[in-house]
Amino acid sequence: MRGHPRFDLDPRVPRSQYHRRRRYFAVMLGAVALFAGAGIVYQWAPGVAIAMAVVAAFMPPVAAIVANRWERGDKWWDEL
After folding, report:
1. pLDDT, average across residues 30-49
2. Is 18 inside any structural domain?
3. What is the pLDDT of residues 37-46, one digit of tens each?
4. Would you tell me how many other CB atoms lie within 10 Å of the CB of residue 37?
């Protein structure tokens, strides 16, 4: 499988860039959903809503770590 056609145009862009971006947006989507859900849940269970917001606050750094993880076959020594 060749990868995403958008990244096939530039040979300097690693093929794993598409997968990294998808992982980042997936984790960040979860964080946004938790923040939005905390606002709704707060009416019925304030403690649960606060816990949801705290978990969502820790998700952006996790998203950055997950998205920047190198995959097998990446050439980390010649990054742009």
Report:
1. 95
2. no
3. 999 999 999 9
4. 15
Residue 60 lies in a domain: yes
Domain count, the chain: 1
Domain that holds residue 60: 23-69
Q: What is the mean pLDDT of residues 56-74?
A: 85
Give yes or no for a contact between 48 and 73, defined as CB atoms under 8 angstroms apart.
no
Q: Residue 65 domain-assigned?
A: yes
| Amino acid in the structure at residue 47 | G
Six token digits for residue 17:
């860039």
In a domain, residue 2? The reply is: no
Q: Rounded CA gap, 63 and 72, in Å?
A: 19
Alpha carbon distance 51, 62 (integer Å): 17
59's tokens:
């998700």
SS3 for 70? coil
By three-state DSSP, how is residue 17 classified? helix
